[in-house]
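Backbone-to-sequence.
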């Protein structure tokens, strides 16, 4: 059974951490899993977000999983998160997309919904 985990909660939310631990558990059990970051969930892809030394960095934890980490480009741009390509396109001074994440269109979410057996939203 394949699962799509849709993360809409900001990284400061406990729900964002629950999404991460669910995905981590599914991977450990050898289940097929995909993720998609949307709405405030895209903030996890901001490499300029500061995390105190005594706390785990959710962005780094996601990158360690080795999954594809698609982020809605429109939601990201609206929250000041961009890759170099979009920074150039929209005349922004720099990029700040965290390593391991990629900006994609909502078509990717629609396709993922079509090909997975269940959707879990955090």
């Amino acid at each position: 059974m394949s699962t799509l985990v849709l993360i809409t909660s900001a990284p400061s939310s406990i729900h964002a951490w629950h999404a991460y631990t669910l995905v981590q558990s599914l991977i450990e059990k050898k289940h097929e899993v995909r993720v998609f970051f949307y709405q405030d969930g895209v903030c996890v892809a901001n490499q300029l977000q500061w995390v105190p030394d005594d706390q785990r960095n959710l962005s780094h934890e996601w990158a360690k999983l080795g999954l594809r980490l698609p982020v809605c480009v429109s939601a990201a741009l609206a929250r000041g998160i961009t890759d170099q390509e979009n920074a150039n396109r929209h005349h922004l001074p720099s990029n700040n997309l965290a390593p391991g994440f990629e900006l994609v269109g909502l078509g990717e979410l629609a396709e993922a919904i079509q090909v997975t057996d269940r959707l879990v939203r955090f």
